[in-house]
Design a protein that fits this description.
By secondary structure, this protein is an alpha+beta fold. Helix content is 29%, strand content 39%. It has 4 helices and 19 strands. The chain has a 6-stranded antiparallel beta barrel. Strands 6-5-3-8 form a 4-stranded antiparallel β-sheet, with no helix packed on it. α2 (98-133) runs antiparallel to α3 (139-171).
């Protein structure tokens, strides 16, 4: 047996095995490279924008006055359709008035009697004074006649007041609109009994919706920021504060800052503000929820990201950022308002040089290695 030949064969075999191992490693590495996900990323945009903070609020009407029944009686009629626009003084309801008409007649009769008694008392007093001048009567009789005249004067005043009161109660039987506006549905139907003498009974409500008020509250620290704005009550920025609603309305609305509370609420640490909104189309109604975008100044280098790239969990808003090692990093952020419909202002948590994942958020997770592809 040739020993050299045997050793040579063993070396060749070993080399062959090593080559096979190298090929396997190369294939494994290539396979691993192919498994790295290619993910679209982008750099934040920067722009000069008006800084606003959004606050939830609600709308109230310029006026909302209850229409009440102040008398007792059967409700005879409703003289409008629910939701109608009515003029001030328009007749809305009629209540049975027999009792009150009788009271007016009795009061009028009492006044007539009082006036008649006064005329007699005055004539008698003048006659007694003449008789006293000729010593035909005593001073006591003159005093009694004068007292009767004063009593007759007082009776006229009392009877006049009673008649006016009776006439007022009778007028309450015809219930009119206290202001112009839209009237609500009736609280009581025709035929129902109204017991309004003891306590007024609400029959409906009239809303003047020509001007609305957005009511909202800001935190004390935001009020301190607001103080940095030059005279917010007269600053042009606060003459057209943007309003947003849950659903898009046919028209765009802005409000004028009209009220700053004189004090903060100590229990909540907030201050009440109001904005006045014109409602020429009648689309705004009392009780609607609104988002008030209050301006606080201009940020010349605001950081903006695609709103669709932002995730949300129990901790708040976040982005997936790809670091220099191409690893995904879960990054909490604080966001501001929407800008130009698709971009979101990032207040904190992100730098202008950060690469953030723009889509396929469900495919990535914290710590994952990716192949980032920068897109615009």
């Amino acid at each position: 047996m040739n020993i050299n030949s045997t050793l040579k064969g063993m070396v060749i075999a070993a080399v062959g095995i090593n080559c096979l191992s190298c090929d396997s490693d190369k294939k494994s590495k290539a396979s691993a490279d192919n498994e790295v996900e290619t993910i679209d990323v982008a750099y934040p945009e920067q722009d000069s924008i008006l800084i606003t903070y959004s606050y939830p609020g609600y709308l109230t009407a310029k006026s909302a006055i209850d229409v009440v029944g102040r008398v007792n009686g059967q409700l005879l009629s409703q003289n409008y359709n629910n939701g109608d626009k009515v003029a001030k003084g328009a007749v809305l309801f009629r209540i049975e008035d027999t009792k009150y008409r009788d009271a007016v007649q009795q009061a009028a009769a009492a006044l007539a009697t009082a006036k008649s008694n006064y005329e007699y008392a005055q004539t008698h007093y003048e006659a007694v004074k003449k008789a006293f001048a000729s010593d035909a009567v005593s001073r006591m009789e003159v005093a009694q006649a004068e007292n009767s005249l004063h009593q007759a004067e007082a009776d006229i005043k009392n009877a006049t007041a009673s008649l006016e009161s009776a006439e007022k109660m009778l007028s309450y039987c015809t219930v009119t609109a206290p202001i112009a506006g839209e009237v609500s549905a009736n609280k009581l139907s025709a035929g129902a009994y109204v017991g309004g003498e003891g306590s007024p009974v609400t029959l409906a409500t009239v809303y003047d919706n020509t001007t609305m008020t957005a009511n909202f509250f800001i935190e004390d620290e935001k009020y301190l920021q607001l103080l940095k704005v030059n005279d917010p009550m007269n600053n042009p920025q606060f003459k057209a504060v943007e309003m947003e609603f849950n659903d898009t309305l046919p028209h765009r609305y802005t409000g004028e800052l009209s009220y700053l509370a004189p004090a903060l609420n100590k229990s909540t640490g907030t201050m009440e503000l109001r904005c006045r909104i014109q409602n020429p189309y009648g689309e705004l109604k009392a009780g609607m929820y609104v988002k008030i975008k209050l301006p606080y100044g201009t940020d010349t280098n605001a950081i903006l990201v695609k709103d669709s790239s932002i995730g949300s969990d129990q901790l708040g808003k976040y982005l997936y950022v790809v670091n220099d090692s191409n690893r995904v990093v879960y990054t909490p952020i604080k966001t501001g308002d929407l800008y130009q419909d698709s971009m979101r202002v990032v207040i904190s948590g992100l730098s202008p040089k950060s690469r953030y994942v723009t889509k396929a958020l469900l495919k990535v997770k914290n710590g994952m290695t990716v192949n980032p592809k920068v897109v615009k």
